[in-house]
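Supplementary Data S3. Sequence and structure tokens for construct A.
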Amino acid sequence: MKRILTLLTFILPIIGTINGYGQDQKKIDSLNNELKKFEVKKKELKNKVPAMYDTTKANILYAISREYSISKFDTAILLTNQVLALSKQMGYKKGIGNYYQGMGNISKSKNNLEQALEYYQKALKIREEIGDKKAVISTTNTIANIYFNNDYPKAIVYFEKALKLNEEISDSIGISDSYDNVGSAYANQANYPEALKYFLKRLKVNQDIGIKSRIANSYNDVGFIYDQIGNYPDAIIYYQLALNI
């Protein structure tokens, strides 16, 4: 996730959300169709419905609520509450964690960041308890993004936590993005030695991944840091590498 702008704007954060969602009507329609299919199948099963069968419904409702969490808050809250009710009924901890994550997303969209953090911390606790590392990474990055706006040291703590988890599950893309996040936080504090260290690590990972656009972005980031510290020869080298791609 890019948080460093060009030299024209010096170093300012590009506000983005790892866990942000925009309303996608096609996706909503597709999810609603999945919900209808689920209900039909459940009726067909009658008395043979498995005990945790409604976890599927809870997951679909959560996915729909995420699509509404940026603009249609009332709808998103209604759906997220349904996720909570179903999850409590089944003892489905993942669903309860999704409820808190969903409410955090809605609060964040309303710019109520203090409340959002409270919900995200509850989601994080449950997701850690059930060992859902990918979900923990998502929540951790979201918390870090909030702190990125006003508290870089705290943001780095959470970005580093996400980095460690990405390393544990051997997610190369996640590791690359984590290096980018930490490096950007240091860069925005003008701590260029630390920023360079993380951007060079990211470059190595991106070279191993082999996606040209990611490699070009890394070259550009490294060039940017050399530019900031006045090492113009090296800055030109890395900018040229990025330009070549």
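Construct B, processed identically:
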Amino acid sequence: MELWIFPCFLVLIMPAGFALLETGLCRAKNAAHAMSLNLLAYALGITAFWAAGFALMCGGAGHSHHSAGAWGHISAISSLTKIWGFRVAGHWCGIIGGRGFFLAGHFPADQRNALIAAFFCMAVYAVVAVAIPNGALMERWSLRSFSLFTLLIGAFIFPVYGCWIWGGGWLAQLGHNFGLGNGAVDYGGSTVVHLLGGTLALAGATQIGPRIGKYDEQGVPRPIFGHHVPMVILGTFLLAFGWFGFNTARSFAAGDGLAAVIAVNTALSSVAGALAAGLYMTFRYGKPDPSVMCNGLLGALVASCAGCAYVQPWAAFLIGAVAGLLAAWGVLFFERRGIDDPVGAISVHGLNGLWGAIAVGLFADGAFGAGTHHVAAPVRGLFYGNGKQLVAQLIAAGACIAWAFGTGSAAFIVIRAVLGSNRVPVEVEIAGLDIPEMGASGYPEFISHMAPEQVPMSEIVSARRG
């Protein structure tokens, strides 16, 4: 039996965490819409990944020349043998898989259970990736645009980059082919899931623009408060709980005996992030902000993913503390530059996904990882004598940002051309998205809206362009 699938069940609590966190940070008039989009992210994400994503990501992981992926149970499925790529300086570089669409095909009976388990595990990671942009774009993103974009992430954008690291593609092969450490290493998904999702959120926020009322006529940001802070904190705890399955799943799959180490490193990172974010806000503004502390904790969890198996506990705590500061600082940084991100997804997932990738290249201590990506030496970072691992991590992060921002921006442009806009109409945004978009109100007894004449015409024109 593929008993390692059970930790992946924990990951399925994370959509509930996202739903509560994002809904609590939006206004009451948009609560049903925010909740519903998280439900649809789960449904559409798994559907798209089943139809095409798994094949594109893992369809060549079992090929004898391309089985250098991070997930050993996938590369051991010898029937996953179709991959496309090219040669560079005589070395084969895999780009995209091609077997397993709709989980159809003639797979050997002795591999079928492993194949289905591998699909399920990768699918729950896909659900997290597709959920991230939703938070940054809520309160103005239309259901139709969201649905098309989510399908694209699950079917194409996430799996192609995932193939490059977890499916045995060219980033995983940087060590074996070009001597850059063990190649790009991402044990739990700092780049594959979070940097990718955070960069897609940035692309969307850039294309769609800020919420009406977020900035005054001089471009100074105004606070728009969420309606339910306890919901935000509960969502954070659910996400943190699911994260232990998120980070340990590969350990159970590989049987490497590191689940306890990973769990401890994950926990230490998270508490350091919450404390660092709270202290930052206290020193700067006099009070710790609950939502910022939540973002500090979550940003630290993001940063912990890539190196959770490769670093010492003290390093995990330090990585989490830096991540908490990045999460708190990043929200203010982007907001002051016209990027409206109601939940801080760009900072939590984007900035800290980048930091998590870099942290492996700095703090990996060489105690684990021998044989990773067909390199005999263990994973060792700059502070332990191997600066080439840091180079591989930077290449992987740069490739992720370029891929996600490029494809995400193009997708929003095409969807806008097809639908006419990625945003809901101005009147709907002002009154609230619940009834017009979903046909149900989150709080039927409570109605809050702004009259159209209270909104500056310049903001209305800008919103219509989105």
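Residues 25 and 225 are 7 Å apart (CA to CA). The beta strands are 83-88, 91-97.
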